Amino acid sequence: MQSLTATVLDERIDPRGNAFHALCVFVGTLLAILPLAHVTGLRNTLVVFIAGTAVLHFRTALWKDNPTLLPWLAWLGFAALSILWSALPEVSFRSFRTDLLYPFVLFLASFMLVRSRRGRLALTIGAGAGTLMSLATTIAAAIAPIDPKAHAPIPGVLGWLAWKAGDTVDLSTFVAFVTVPLFLVLLTSRNVLYRAAVAIWLVAFAVLGIMSESRTLVVSLFMSLACFVIVLGLLRGKLHLRSVLAV
Q1: DSSP 213-232
Q2: Does residue 65 sit in helix, strand or coil?
Q3: For the chain, which ranges sit under pLDDT 50?
């Protein structure tokens, strides 16, 4: 029965379709540029493409076989209601769109992509490129500081990289997205090389938090670990929901 279910799910996902290949490219590209500044137009376009290709390819499986949907909808609903009593509703709506709605689309599509080898490869390449770009831009900003609101970069590669150093909110969103699968590999994989690579990756995130002086990023890193350990313990039966709620 388990193999039959897996077969049906694989047929429904169909990683050979053109829409699936396009979705992999869009998600990988979005992850690569997510921590960067001055890419709002490209980021918004990619989010629209991701939503469209995900619905086109996965269809009803996108919400029927996706356990992340209900928690996300509950959180989005609460956040949307909070706009009603906001002193600056326009600012709150912009934050809702960029900080919650866009990550919702990315998480929903990625949860389906990760079920196939090609999808995991696209996510890994995109996340790796995004991490390297984050390190490059953060280091450049530390060496050659620039006004984040500047409309043009300082001449030279270093000036361009410093200008592309993203906002700490975007960087925190990127870290929160990538750290959960990294923690999964670190705590469950039996491959020593995989675990070593993941450990180096997490150290790179810690360095980003220190260099960018972002408390939000550091908190995201540790909160992701705590939440992941709790969920993993609940799924494996080593923790009980009553005990977790009591704490």
Answers
A1: T-HHHHHHHHHHHHHHHHHH
A2: coil
A3: 1-11
43's tokens = 């980021």
CA dihedral 146, 152, 157, 162 (to 10 degrees): 30
Cα gap 150→236, rounded to integer Å? 50
Q: How far apart are the C-alpha atoms of 174 and 55, rounded to whole Å? A: 23
Separation between Cα atoms, residue 86 and residue 109, nearest integer Å: 30
What single letter denotes the amino acid at residue 186?
L
What would the pLDDT profile of 28-80 be if each residue is shown by its tens digit?
999 999 888 888 889 889 999 999 999 988 888 877 777 778 888 888 888 88
Q: Which ranges constitute the DSSP H helices of the chain?
A: 2-13, 18-33, 40-58, 61-64, 69-82, 89-96, 102-113, 117-143, 157-163, 168-188, 192-212, 215-235, 241-246
Integer CA distances (angstroms), 235 to 2, 46, 232, in order? 18, 33, 5
Residue type, 34: L
Token pair in block for residue 195: 């675990």
CA distance 39 to 19: 24
Q: How many whole angstroms separate alpha carbon 225 and alpha carbon 182?
A: 10
**Distance in angstroms (rounded) separating the CA atoms of residues 111 and 176:** 14
Give SS3 for 63.
helix
Distance CA(142)–CA(157), nearest Å, equals 14
Determine the 3-state secondary structure of 36 from DSSP. strand
